[in-house]
Design brief:
homodimer; 457 residues; mainly alpha; 2 domains; 15 helices; 75% helix; Nitrate/nitrite_sensing (chains A, B); WH-like_DNA-bd_sf (chains A, B)
Chain lengths: 457, 457
C-alpha cells in the first residue's frame, strides 16, 4: 500500500493557515457586529422613551413631561454620540480590516444615520407643536425601525451558529420591546385624548399579539438563563398591573371618557416593564459579546496549534511516521463503486496529528460541523418565519384569532403527517401575496379564502 | 407637513458609499473565484485523461498508451502550473484585498493542493506498476473530487444571482463529466481485463444514472445557449456511437470474453464525448467571467453615480428642492396601525434623485432586489437537491428505477397538491438516513421501506 513520500507543499500549508485566518477575521467582524448591536439596543431604548414622553408632551400641549422630555433628549444625544463614535472607530477609520464586507449591514447603517440626522429637526417640530402626536410617533417609529434593521442585518450575516441564535433571540426581543413601546404610545394617545375608540382598541390588541409573536421566537432561540429572566419579568408586579390596566382599557366603551391622569399611571407601568425588558436586553448583549469573543480566542488558539504542528513537522529531530496519503485514504470517496474499505487495511497506530493531511482533514471536519449547525439554525428560523406569515394570512383571510390560526395549522400538519412549516408554505402559496415563500405549484383560481378554509378545515 | 432642513450627515454619506464599495469588493472576489473555476476545470480535464490513459497502461502492463501517457502527464503538469500560479498571484501575494474571506473555499484549495503534491508520487507508483488500475483510478478520483469541491465552494459563496446560477450549472456539468470519466475508466478496466461481470455492469448503469442526475441540474440552471450546445453534443455521432457501445457492453453475458482491442475504441468514443463536454465547459467558464466582470463594472458605475450626485448636492449653485424627510416618508412603515397614506399628501414633483435619502432608498431597493433573486436561486437549488436525494432513497429502499422513483414522487405531489420538494422532504424524513434535510416530525417506527411504499403508493 503506497505511502506519501512527497514533501509538504508550502502552498497547501499556506492555504490551510489562510483558511483559519479567514475564520478568525470573520469572527472578529462578528464581535464588531455584536458591539454595534449593543450600542443600538441602548440608543433604541432612549428613543423609545423620548417617543413616549414627547407624545404626552404634545397631547398635553406642553403641560406634562416638559422637564422629563429635556432630560430624555439629553440621554438620547449621549447614546447617539456613543453609537456614532463606535461606527467611526470601527468602520470609517481607514486600514481597519475587520470592517464588514457586508453591503446590507452598511446600507442599513447609512439609513439609520440619515434618520438620526433628522432627529434634531423632529425635536424642533415637537417643541413648536408643529407635528401631531401621531406624526411625531410615526417619525420616531421610522427611526427606530431603521435601527432595528441594523440589528437584523447583523444577525443575518453571523457565521457562527451559537452567536446567530443569540442574535436572532435578541433581535426578536428588541422587536417585541418596540411593539410594547408602540402599545405604550397608543395607550398614551388614548388616555391623554381621554377616549378609546374601536380602532384604538383593535390596534392595542394587535400590538399585544405582535409582542407575543416576537417573544415566541425569542424564547425559541434564547438560552435558559434568558428565558427564566423573562418569566420573572412577565410574572412581576409591573407586568401584572399593566395586564390589569390593559383589561380596563379593553373594557372601555366606544369613546367612554377616562381621567387623563391615568395616562401617567399607564405610562409608568408600561415603562417599568419596558425598562425591565431593556435590562434583559443588556444581559443578552453582554453574553453575545462574551460568546463571540470566546469564538475568536478559540480560533486563534487553533491557528497557534496549526503553526506549532507544522513547525514540529519541519524540525530536524522530527521523524515523520508513515503518513496516510490523501490520494490513498480509503475514507476519501474515490472511484464510484470501488470498495475502498478493502482496498487499504487500517494503518496500525496511525497518528492523526502527525501530517499536514491530518491538519487539513481536521479542519475539514471542523468546517463541516460548523456549517451543519448554522444550516440547522437558519432552517429553524426560516420555518418559524413561514409559520408566522401563514398564521397572519389565516387570521386576515379567515378572521381567525392567532391561537385559532395556529391550532388549525397544527391539526392539519398532524393529519397529513407534515411539518408545520410545510403546511405554512402551502398556505402562503394559496394566500398568494407571499408566494415568494413558496414558488407556488397550486394553480388554484378560486378565491384564496375558500381554498384556505378547505385547506385547514 | 415637515420637511428635512438638516444638512447631510457626512457619516450617512460615507456609509452609503462604503456599502457600494463593499458590493464592488464582493463582486471582485467573485470574478476571482470564476477565474479560479476556469483553471480548475482545465486541470480536472487533464487529470481525467491521465487517469484513463494510466488505466490502460497499467492493465496492459505498459504495452499500451505508454507514449500517450508521458505526453498527457506533461499536459497535466502545465495545467497544474497555471493553477498554482493563479493561486499565488491571487491569494498569497500580500496586501491583495480581493482575497476571499471564505474559510471553506480556502480550505478546499489547501486540500486540493495537498493532493496535487502527491500526484508525482502516484505517477511513480504507476510507472513501476506498484498500484493496481483500481488503486490508481481511485487515487485520481480523490484528487479530482477535491478539485471539484473547490468549484462547489466557489458556487456556494457567490453573492450574485445570475453568477450563482451559472456556477451551479457549471459545477453540475463538471460533475456529470467526472461521472462520464469514471464510466470511461470502468469500461477501460472491463475491456482491458477482457471481462464484464455483474458488478461492473451495475456500476456502469449507475454512473450513467449519476450523469443524468447532474445533467438535469445543469439544464435547470444553465442558459439556453448552453442547453442547445448540450443537445448538439448528445445528438452528435460520438455520443450515439458511445450509446451503441454501451448497449453492446450491457448485452455481454457474465464474464463473456471480448477483444481487448475494443478498449481503445471505447476509450476514444468516451473521450470524444468528454472532450466535447470540456469545450462546452470552457464556453460556460468564459461566460461566467464575462458576466461577473460586467457586474463589477455596473457596481462601479453606480458608485460613480453616487459620487456625482453627492457632489451636485454640495455644489453652491445647487438649489435643494424640498426633500422628503425619511422620518416623515409615508412609504416608510412607522407606528403600527397609523394610516400613513393619509398622514402625508404625495409631494408635487418630488424628484427622486435629489437627496441623500433618495440615494439611500434606491440602494435599499437594489439590495432588496438582489437578495430576493439570490434567495430564489438558492431555494431552487436546495429543493432540487432534496428531490435528488429522495429519489435515491426510493430507488434503494423500494428498488425502483430512477424514472419510477421520480414519477411516483410527482404523482404523490399532484395528489396532495404539494410541491415536489415537500414530498421529497417527507420521504427523506421517513428514509431517516437523511433526516438532516427534514427535521422529521414523523415518529414512525415501522421499517422505512414499508412506510415509504405507503407514502407514494
Amino acid at each position: 500500500m503506497p505511502r506519501s513520500s512527497s514533501t509538504h507543499s508550502d502552498d497547501a500549508e499556506k492555504f490551510l493557515l489562510a483558511a483559519k485566518r479567514a475564520e478568525i477575521q470573520a469572527l472578529e467582524r462578528l464581535v464588531g457586529s455584536c458591539e454595534l448591536v449593543t450600542t443600538v439596543s441602548d440608543l433604541v431604548h432612549q428613543l423609545q422613551r423620548e417617543r413616549g414622553i414627547s407624545n404626552i408632551y404634545l397631547v398635553s400641549t406642553g403641560f406634562r413631561f416638559s422637564a422629563q422630555r429635556q432630560e430624555q433628549i439629553q440621554n438620547g444625544r449621549d447614546s447617539e454620540e456613543v453609537f456614532r463614535r463606535l461606527l467611526h472607530n470601527r468602520y470609517l477609520r481607514s486600514g481597519r480590516d475587520e470592517s464588514p464586507r457586508d453591503m446590507r449591514l452598511l446600507n442599513s447603517i447609512a439609513y439609520s444615520l440619515h434618520g438620526l440626522d433628522e432627529l434634531a429637526n423632529l425635536r424642533l417640530h415637537v417643541d413648536a407643536f408643529e407635528v401631531s402626536a401621531l406624526e411625531s410617533t410615526d417619525a420616531y417609529c421610522r427611526l427606530i425601525a431603521g435601527l432595528l434593521s441594523v440589528v437584523f442585518e447583523a444577525a443575518d450575516v453571523a457565521d457562527d451558529p451559537e452567536v446567530t441564535r443569540l442574535l436572532v433571540a435578541l433581535f426578536n426581543f428588541m422587536q417585541a420591546k418596540e411593539f410594547a413601546g408602540q402599545e405604550r404610545a397608543w395607550g398614551a394617545i388614548g388616555f391623554a385624548g381621554c377616549r378609546f375608540d374601536k380602532k384604538l382598541h383593535g390596534r392595542l390588541a394587535q400590538l399585544q399579539d405582535c409582542q407575543r409573536g416576537s417573544l415566541e421566537l425569542f424564547v425559541e432561540f434564547s438560552g435558559e438563563a434568558e428565558q427564566t429572566r423573562w418569566q420573572t419579568i412577565e410574572g412581576g408586579e409591573a407586568s401584572r398591573d399593566l395586564q390589569r390596566l390593559r383589561q380596563v382599557i379593553a373594557g372601555l366603551k366606544e369613546g367612554e371618557p377616562i381621567a387623563s391622569e391615568i395616562s401617567e399611571v399607564w405610562y409608568d407601568l408600561a415603562t417599568a416593564r419596558i425598562d425591565a425588558m431593556h435590562c434583559l436586553e443588556d444581559a443578552m448583549a453582554a453574553r453575545l459579546l462574551q460568546v463571540s469573543r470566546k469564538r475568536v480566542a478559540e480560533a486563534q488558539s487553533e491557528l497557534g496549534y496549526h503553526y506549532a504542528q507544522l513547525q514540529r513537522m519541519k524540525s530536524t529531530e522530527w521523524t515523520r511516521p508513515p503518513a496516510l496519503a490523501v490520494l490513498f485514504d480509503p475514507e476519501v470517496p474515490g472511484l464510484y463503486g470501488s470498495a475502498p474499505s478493502t482496498a487499504v487495511p487500517p494503518l496500525p497506530g496511525k497518528n492523526l496529528a502527525h501530517s499536514l493531511y491530518d491538519l487539513i482533514r481536521s479542519q475539514v471536519a471542523h468546517i463541516h460541523r460548523v456549517s451543519e449547525e448554522l444550516e440547522k439554525t437558519r432552517r429553524a428560523l426560516t420555518e418559524r418565519k413561514l409559520v408566522e406569515r401563514a398564521k397572519g394570512i389565516l387570521m386576515r383571510s379567515l378572521r381567525l384569532s392567532e391561537e385559532e390560526a395556529y391550532r388549525s395549522m397544527q391539526t392539519r400538519a398532524m393529519e397529513m403527517n407534515l411539518k408545520l412549516a410545510d403546511v405554512a408554505e402551502k398556505i402562503l402559496q394559496i394566500g398568494g401575496r407571499d408566494g415568494s415563500a413558496g414558488g407556488g405549484t397550486s394553480g388554484s383560481v378560486r378565491p384564496a379564502a375558500e381554498t384556505l378554509a378547505e385547506e385547514i378545515r
